[in-house]
Amino acid sequence: MSTIKNVLARLTAATLVTGIALTAMQTSASAGELPSGNHRIGVLSNGALQVKEGNLYASWVQEMGGGVEKFDIAGDRIGVLTTDHKLFVKQGNLWESWTEQAQNVKDFRLTGSRIGVLRDDSTVAVKEGDLNATWVEQTSGVKDLELSGNRIGVVFDSGLATVKEGTLHSSWVNQMDGVADLELSADRVGVLRTNGTVAVKESNLWSNWVEQIGNVKKLELSGSMIGVVTNDGLATVKEGNLYATWVNQTSDVADLQIAGDRIGVLTTGGVVTVKEGGLYGSWVNQYGGAQSFRLAAATSNQGGQHVSQQDIVNIYGSAYATDTVAAGLPDLNAEMQAAGITSPTRKAAFLATLKHESGFRYNAGEAGNGAVYKGRGFIQLTGDFNYRAAGNYLGHDFLSHPEDAAKVEWSAKIARWYWTVARNINASADAYDMGGVGRAIGYSYDLDPTESLNRCASYKKALAYFNGGSLPVAESSIKCTR
């Protein structure tokens, strides 16, 4: 591998928004992740790449002064494809040096610890690990490449989309013909067909497609959000399950990007503007004269977790410092990411619910209930209709094996399914409506008002904790009763 020196960091004069320069890196995260708060925005203008890190008013740092054809940012990695078809990647802070990765490249993707290249001869290779890892050949005859988590997807020249999941040597699973663009995010697969229609599936690679919308020229998936740009330039986004309602964002849009709770657009006039806080945030102009842009979301806290056992203990006490709680957290964090449970209010609503439903125990069972389909797991899945619906979605027979709902490999998945698919509880959390959360969870009304008020108190504790010690809204704005 050869290395070129990074261009000296300097501020650009082409910004629409100026802000406070970055003075130091935040707490470090593991490879491929950004520390909490260190969201990134990148823009390409006249072949030069600028990136900012932090809040929407941070200052730009020039990463490469010219000769850039395409770029990508994912976690703490930045990649550029130069006009002579060479791929360079850097990892770490914005002032790291570039490392040449490949030549004869026409497109590439970054995700986590993986780098994928689509070469000029339409072959695809992917590497995994550090920047010096070895390339593993994947397939040929490809026009589009996508990476997300442990999934690799391609669209062949014929229009067939196929995806593999797991290792770099896993088998391909064909998805659909007639595909113009393929998008991957968490456990979702989305296709934009050549006729401008969009379909999305979630859970496993053999799930059924759900039709979304037509007249589309751009598709974007991120966590629990689906975004499109229509042929007339309207950007619209939905959040939650696949049947959620579209929320129009803005018009005259050429490109759309989503990462974490940020939504960004490139207007037809070359202006990049970004909002944070989800679908109803306020736009903040970022850059003028842009060719393209990308967003990268930071991890929510140290170690790449949305919630640690120490967080739970800090909020609710040492009673939860048990091996059982610790054993369920890796899966729970993964499903929180997939469900978009990443903002302070969503995490607080989710944790308050799990505290009262299961005590954060993945293997919890409803005490004193001998029914076959009694409450089990993090979210206390209850009733044969819910066991059936969860099984249909997750591809597992919980009706025949109800005890599996309280196993670590299924408990968090079921919680995510109930939170975002069976219900759309994120919407209530976003509105600071614990009464709405309670209605969706469905505990007995005979317990009210005490139970609802207790859950709301648990929510407020977690909300203040994840918001840096104080509530983000007036306490009177939080609805506690159903």
UniProtKB/TrEMBL annotation:
Family matches, as SUPFAM superfamilies: Lysozyme-like
Signal peptide: 1-31
InterPro entries: Glyco_hydro_19_cat, Lysozyme-like_dom_sf
Keywords carried by this UniProt record: Hydrolase, Signal
Domain of life: Bacteria
Positions of the Glycoside hydrolase family 19 catalytic domain: 369-431
Stated name of the protein: Glycoside hydrolase family 19 protein
